[in-house]
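Fill-in record for Amidohydrolase family protein.
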Amino acid sequence: MRQRSVPLGLGTDGIRDLWSPFGDGDLLRIAFQFARLHGLRHDDKLTAAVELATRGGAHFVGRNVHDLAAGARADIVLLDAENVPDALVRCPPRRLVISGGCVVARNGEVLV
């Protein structure tokens, strides 16, 4: 589908409910489930799974994708990982979560 330029994305519409009692809204875990379900094993494919949940998901809800750049929205998640595939496979705790330039969580504690 990607080779034919079909837009793809991953997302979640809930946390825990009757239809999905295992959800927690964590897009990294959504990407992990996608990668595991589809047997993705190589770094380029694992990175693509994360991009489906970040850039791809943003596309479907009409949000511009922002990279780390001056003037960007500053939605950032910091975690202890060597690279994107490592973050996906290990799903380490989030050390810092910034939304719109404001710190909203630190070391697993929600601040807002």
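KEY FINDING: Residues 31 and 93 are 15 Å apart (CA to CA).
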